[in-house]
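Session log. Operator J.P. requested a structure for one protein chain; no other inputs attached. Running the standard single-chain path with token output.
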Amino acid sequence: MDKEELFSIKIQKPGTKAYNSAQVHWDGIAKPLDGLGVFEDIIKQIAAITGNADVVMDKKAVVVMCADNGIIEEGVSQSGHEVTSIVSANMAKGIASVCRMARIAGADVFPVDIGIKDNIEEEGLLNRKVANGTANFAKEQAMADGELLQAIQAGISIAGDLKEKGYKIIATGEMGIGNTTTSSVLASVMLGLPAEKVAGRGAGLSDKGLLRKVKVIRDAIEKYQLGSKIENKEEIFRALCCAGGLDIAGLAGVFIGGAVYHMPVVVDGVISATAALAAENLVPGCKQYMIASHTGKEPACRLILDKLCLNPVINAGLALGEGTGAVLLFPMLDMVLEVYRENTTFEDINVSQYKRFTDK
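Structure written below.
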């Protein structure tokens, strides 16, 4: 895939027929209209995405893009790249936080080596390595055009593979020390906000560390002349090359792939949200296939979700990463789906159905 092919991808709008059928079904269930609030909207959205009001989520996947970021050389994190390797290996072994949570949620975790600095041989770790981490963007461009395209294509392909294997929904996650800095650069330029409005403490920076991080972000925006509030496809692409991480690029591909293959994709925290916004800017229409799980602790997270017009349902100050926030949504959806699929209807209990009124 080249850049022109990426930019020419067309996203089909989710169908209204299945959405309307799901609405009728919800209204027929013996409960107050819209009683399950935004969760009812999510089920209707999934119906529209799949084109089927008979919503099933028996197979759930968690795709975790793992990559290192050269920018950690600038002291923007209190951890080194070795943490990326350790946690990624633990995911492959099934002992990381997201794996334990996914087992409870009935989901399968797919950790992906999209750009880990070390070469890890671990069964269960999908090898889609584009490079051994990105370059330090404080000194040089993070990645080349071809590397960005390869990472995006990897994400699209993974979404397609999961669709073929019968998975119905994908949660997104990431692992990569330094990626709240890469995402903050991208959030700053895509939202048109100064660095201090989008940058947070990541895994735990001191006040001095946060100031250093903000300066690194500002300097990068100036160095590469990224401008303010960029939405042009070419400029988004260039910003990703200049400062983006391979994990963000891979996740952008997953979001694009979800839209291409008509699969709902759950947004996790700020890294995932940044990738989602990049995907929407590169391939308009992707956001109609996205579901927001939580607000996240990083300042940019809610701002990005607002930009995408996505309504997160969990507000718990989450900052663990790995896709854990997205996985938390799965049991909630399973419970709501049980009501949608199995609850008695007004017809079953011989009670008049509530009427839906429109204010004039």
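Operator note: The CA atoms of residues 156 and 257 lie 4 Å apart.
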